[in-house]
Design brief:
β8 and β9 form a beta hairpin. This protein is α/β, with parallel strands linked by helices. The protein starts with 11 loop residues before the first strand and ends with a helix. The protein has a single domain, classed as Glutaredoxin, CATH 3.40.30.10. It is globular. About 30% of the residues lie in helices and about 30% in strands.
């Protein structure tokens, strides 16, 4: 598991518009809130995406950009963004490389059945590219507000 003060793993993937987004795009300029979620347009993921969207302006005030990551396709992300008017970037990690690098592709058990899935997790990466905050297995409701409080405490 990744922890505070570790260098954040580099990432690069297409967003909902097919444009490649990389961690290096933000180094020295913005803090990055990188959140991993299981699937577009499912109840918990919709709560989380809508809450981050509502607070996008607040995150921007603190030099932070919010980026969601799942294994869904760019097309799926585009439909999700359009359906809910989302104001966050969503990266298509179809290969699972980013999920593996951030150690969120894990075994889950539901109704006695074990399978691999994305653990809903969030990382705050500071402008220097280091993990400023890491949380695994988050609850969607109220999570965006909690992360905003963490971002407010980052050095400017």
């Amino acid at each position: 598991m990744l922890e505070k003060n570790q260098p954040a793993p580099a990432f690069s993937a297409p967003n909902q518009d097919g444009k490649t987004v990389s961690l290096s795009d933000y180094l020295g300029k913005k803090n990055v809130v990188l959140y991993f979620y299981p699937k577009d347009d499912t109840p918990g993921c919709t709560i989380e995406a809508n809450d981050f969207t509502k607070l996008a302006g607040e995150f921007a005030k603190y030099d932070a950009v919010v980026i969601g990551v799942s294994k869904d396709t760019c097309e799926s992300h585009r439909q999700f963004v359009d359906k809910y008017n989302l104001n966050v970037e969503l990266l298509a990690d179809t290969s699972g490389e980013i999920c593996e690098a951030y150690d969120v592709w894990r075994e889950k058990e539901k109704n006695g059945v074990k399978k691999m899935a994305i653990w809903r997790s969030t990382f705050i990466i500071d402008k220097n590219g280091n993990i400023a905050y890491a949380e695994y297995l988050v609850e969607p409701k109220g999570h965006a507000e909690k992360i905003l409080e963490q971002v407010k405490n980052l050095p400017s």
